[in-house]
């Protein structure tokens, strides 16, 4: 009988130990759940803050560009008024040159860059050939005329340059062999 009661006591002790461990694990689980909820709330707040900052930055950039372009608009209006009033062409030409210069600097200030094309090797990633002429020199196909300028915005292609390309002397032979 003593073995039974010692076994019972051991069992009761094990049960008590297991209950204590279960209570500790429940407490730990609740703490972890609470931490998870706080972390999720922090993450959601962070997302909202980042979204707001991105919207604000975008709006600020747009506002800055618009204020610069309004100056260009004012100058265009003034140039048009001078043209209507019949002032000499020199003033109109000067006004238009000033507008072009201010517009170019406003666009460059936000990251727009013109692609230099004339006199450079033809690159299909930034140039679009609208006309091809046969050349005499061997080597690479070269851009000889820019029909419409191309631009990059912060290092990424916005619009390719439309160009006239002088083909290298070996290009037509290669094209004929392909055909």
Description:
There is one protein chain. This protein has 179 residues and is an alpha+beta fold. It folds into two domains: 1-110, Up-down Bundle (Methane Monooxygenase Hydroxylase, Chain G, domain 1), CATH 1.20.58; 113-179, Nucleotide Exchange Factor Grpe, Chain A, domain 2, CATH 2.30.22.10. Helices cover 63% and strands 18% of the residues. It is built from three helices and six strands; from the N terminus they run H-H-E-E-E-E-E-E-H. The strands form two sheets. Strands 1-4-5 form a three-stranded antiparallel β-sheet. A three-stranded mixed β-sheet has the order 2-6-3, with no helix packed on it. A hairpin with a 2-residue loop joins strand 4 (151-153) and strand 5 (156-159). Helix 1 (2-84) runs antiparallel to helix 2 (89-109). The longest helix is centred in the N-terminal third of the chain and has 83 residues, at 2-84. It starts with a helix and ends with a helix. The model has no long low-confidence stretch (mean pLDDT 83).
Mean model confidence by pLDDT: 83
CATH class of the largest domain: Mainly Alpha
The computed structural class is alpha+beta
Rg over alpha carbons: 37 Å
For the secondary structure, the number of strands is 6
How many distinct domains?
2
Q: What spatial order of strands do you see in the largest sheet?
A: 1-4-5
CATH architecture of the largest domain: Up-down Bundle
Distance between the termini: 105 Å
Biggest sheet: strands, sense, closure? 3 strands, antiparallel
CATH topology of the largest domain: Methane Monooxygenase Hydroxylase, Chain G, domain 1
SSE arrangement, N to C: HHEEEEEEH
The shape, in one word, is elongated
What is the tally of helical segments?
3
Strand content: 15-25%
Q: What is the percent of helical residues? A: 55-70%
List low-pLDDT spans: none
